[in-house]
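Appendix C. Worked example: Cytochrome P450 18a1
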Amino acid sequence: MLSTELYSVVVWRSALIDGLILTRVMLVFVSVLLLVRALQIFREAISLPPGPWGLPVLGSLPFLKGDLHLHYRDLTRKYGSVISTRLGSQLIVVLSDYKMIRDLFRKEEFTGRPTTEFSSILGDYGVINVAGKLWKDQRRFLHDGLRHFGMSYVGTRKQQMEKRIMNEVEEFLNVLRQKGDDAVDLNPVFAVSISNVICDVLMSVRFSHTDAKFIRFMNLIDEGFKLFGSLEAALFIPFLRHLPGYAATLQKFAKNREEMAKFLQETIDEHKKTFNSEHLRDLLDTYLYEIQKANAEGNGHDLFGGRDHDRQMQQIMGDLFSAGMETIKSTLRWAVLFMLYHPDRAKAVQEELDQVVGRTRLPKLEDIAYLPTTESTILEVLRISSIVPMGTTHAPIRDVKLNGFHLPQHAQIIPLLHAVHMDPTLWNDPDTFNPSRFINAEGKVCKPDYFLPFGVGRRMCLGEVLARMELFLFFSSLLHCFDLSVPEGEKLPTRRGIAGVTLSPSTFRVTLRERPLIRGSRTRDDSMSTEVSSCVTAF
Ligand code: HEM
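Step 2, the predicted output written as structure tokens:
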């Protein structure tokens, strides 16, 4: 009996000792692992550009205050022109030196896009959020396709594009004329007109200003931006995906995307039915032609890297619509807002238009070479509003070295365009709206290398030519036909923008007084020389 008890005590003791040894071994093992990870993090951190360390897991997320581009601008002021920071699990590198941005973004290594929750929702389709071969092929294809439909500085196609835009400008002016003396929020009016330009180029679709389908389409986009905003936190802290509410928001986001996809698919199906390879009507037709050609050559399966053809077309339409609508609409709204702040500048633009264009017609693209006051005003609006304040995030396609720092493949690289455009070492008094900064000693328009509203390098904006045509034609026609003023009893609108992917003005209203066009004034054709300086932006 005693020996049995003794035996169980011995067994118990040895089990206890074994357990203690095991626990110790485990503790040592876990400590070594933690130490190795801490050393890794430390080594990675000291090889990264300087910046705040933040907290474990959360990084700098708890310290974010206000608009992200302003937060990053403050960090670059504190730590230097290239900084790193962590937002949850994501490593962010922010660049604010324009030479560095120019140099890096010309390199193949920096043409990647980060892999995030958002990119997995888009599923590696389209052009904006893809990288590698698909991006290269699509960019080249779109570049040629958009040129074919008139996105070019020269040639007869340019005139066709001008005609498309001017149809919308005239419709836009008619809608405004009908508003009479009422104070107007120009946002919805611009939305239809600008959408119509891009939708016409993409898929020969136009909407009327009261079209229920269009209103639904715009609501889906607006709601999509908002829903994406509420999903965004999970980009940085993946465990938030497990919180209640997240799944429902994700589901709603997916449902809206489905509805958008359905709308786009109907347009694609319609195009397939009426497709004629001898007469390509729009960009969608050029895709159908490409698919037809690839199928005929037996390469259909390889096209778009083996991805679904319809889905790729849907995403391309979605990408170009979202890139080409909000940006131009917001810039035009900023232009109106700055004209309310600077009525003397609006007057100077109107006087120049009256003298060069005359009161018998609307401005044309060919006039721009003779309109330095108008052109420099648009450039200054683009600079001071920096409507894409953080550009679009890039990612190195492999680990790279930058000024002795190590940038890992997964890093999110942000070109802080806002900081470049507001840098007092580059621009005299950058907070002041001063279009004359774009006029040189000979009175010609000149853009410095550090003017980057459309980004720079291999992934710079694909729509710059179209954007500049639209900005000029809408802005100059608006000022040519209307005087703008703040509605009676209302204050000047705030200059503080609403920051999202773009920086857009808050809602504001404007009173319009018509400046009717008349017959018989002097125009550029009979009064101005045709000499164009190489410094002038050529359209
Ligand atoms: C005022 C108007 C516009 C501004 C300020 C603007 C600005 C920009 C910027 C800053 C980028 C990011 C470049 C980068 O990743 O480094 C970009 C990309 C892009 N933009 Fe624009 N954009 C405008 C209008 C347009 C229009 C009208 C279109 C459509 C035709 C367009 C199509 C694109 C596309 C497809 C990309 C992605 C290019 C790529 O990933 O390779 N943009 N834009």
